[in-house]
Write a structure and sequence with these properties.
Helix content is 35%, strand content 24%. With 426 residues, the protein is of the alpha+beta class.
Length: 426
């Protein structure tokens, strides 16, 4: 029996049951994909080039659409142990710190979900806990050199080892080795923007609000982490000088303070507390043309890197993970599942990428446009806060697991009829 026939036979008996999957990358995308696949019956191993899952990165925001996936993966009851429940976002004028607009991201369509403020390492630890509980094996210190698609795709590791599986999932980020197996990546373009990130001591009890300070050609985002013991800072500046991509390039804290010396409110106090800062260049990467073929799939930044102006990079990875597993579990064969995954995700992801790019422009307005734009925000804050929230229902209210969950809830227990009616399949 051929590989595709085996896949179809497995699908008839329970979707991914018994299929072997290798996930490349033990970050948010990889661990969530591994858990989703394993919970549907696949035998999953995650390979990660780093020697250990460590204290990497800084803060990130998970909005209600991402929370919906964490809940669907069975991690909802653990969130409060690992993160702060978000209370929305406030846009502020950079120079004086005055409020422009408050946005409650718990959109009405979000079915009771809320946002969370995570240290990235805490989210990775939570996802790793969930993955291991689902039977996933995590193998650090394994660097992937190349992937060969096929009936049984193969992963070539540094050192010469090759391993075959039924499915290989690339969750290995911007410079994905797995993405290269699906075709060459188009060249990225420097946006003319650089970003600093830093962590400083926090104030326990600080409200779990993301504050965004807007200025000409720059903005700064800050929010508390770990119960307020830490404060996350991300600051973006427009400039012609190129900066390397990646999170791990150190910079002088004095450069950050100079770039935001005209900002007021709490910003000067926060920046005075910065003792270590990292700088990276922001690049615009085209969305991949092919997300899956020959038993190989990509997700998250490997498929669609997103600029950090909408706080959706992690959430898009979580959504990808769920949809990929669902598509493969319900399709008649593997290749049909991979095609269904891209069809289900590509339009939404392109919309998010475009919205993030638009935010970059709106945050950095200058001159009369800035005055008019900030006046409009203040008026919206006073006169139509609900209307503004509803504008984002398409984003925050989206729940990729809702249709399947509704079907499961509507299906009668085995042996019972419930008037012979059942929910429609998604």
């Amino acid at each position: 029996m051929g590989a595709f026939a085996l896949w179809a036979a497995a699908a008839a008996g329970g979707g991914l049951a018994g299929r072997e999957a290798i996930v490349v990358g033990a970050g948010i995308a990889g661990l969530s994909a591994a858990t989703a696949l394993a919970r549907r019956g696949a035998r999953v191993r995650v390979v990660e080039q780093a020697p250990a899952l460590g204290e990497v990165g800084a803060g990130l925001q998970i909005s209600p659409n991402g929370t919906a996936v964490l809940d669907a993966l069975g991690l909802g009851p653990l969130l409060a142990r690992h993160a702060m429940a978000g209370e929305g976002a406030i846009l502020r004028e950079g120079r004086g710190g005055g409020r422009l607009l408050r946005l409650d991201i718990a959109a009405p369509a979000a079915a009771g979900q809320r946002g969370w403020l995570f240290h990235r390492a805490d989210l990775v630890a939570l996802l790793a806990e969930g993955a291991r509980a689902a039977g996933v094996v995590i193998e650090p210190g394994r660097r992937v050199r190349a992937v060969d698609p096929g009936a049984r795709p193969e992963v070539a590791f540094a050192g010469g080892t090759r391993v075959a599986a039924d499915l290989v999932v690339g969750a290995d980020g911007l410079h994905s080795a797995v993405r290269a197996a699906l075709g060459p990546a188009p060249a990225a373009r420097f946006t003319g923007q650089v970003a600093w990130r830093a962590l400083i001591p926090g104030e326990p009890g600080a409200p779990a609000v993301a504050e965004v300070f807007l200025g000409p050609g720059r903005h700064l985002v800050s929010y508390p982490l770990r119960g307020g013991r830490l404060r996350n800072i991300v600051a973006v500046e427009e400039r012609a000088a190129w900066a390397a991509e990646g999170w791990h390039h150190r910079d002088d804290p004095a450069a950050l303070r100079r770039a935001f010396r005209h900002f007021g409110g709490p910003v000067p106090r926060w920046l005075a507390a910065v003792s270590e800062v990292h700088l990276w260049g922001l690049f615009r990467h085209p969305v991949a043309q092919c997300w899956g073929a020959g038993g190989v799939a990509i997700l998250g930044d490997a498929a669609h890197p997103t600029l950090p102006f909408l706080a959706q990079g992690a959430c898009m990875a979580l959504e990808d993970a769920w949809v990929l597993s669902h598509a493969l579990a319900t399709a008649p064969d593997r290749e049909a599942g991979l095609a269904a995954y891209q069809r289900a995700r590509e339009g939404r992801v392109r919309r998010v990428v475009a919205a993030a790019s638009a935010n970059a422009r709106a945050y950095h307005l200058r001159g009369p446009l800035r005055i008019a734009g900030h006046l409009g925000l203040r008026l919206a804050d006073r006169l139509a806060p609900a209307a503004l929230r509803e504008r984002f229902d398409w984003l925050y209210g989206h729940d990729v697991a809702a249709a399947e969950r509704a079907t499961l809830e509507a299906s009668p227990p085995r042996g019972e009829d419930h008037d012979g009616r059942a929910g429609s399949a998604s």
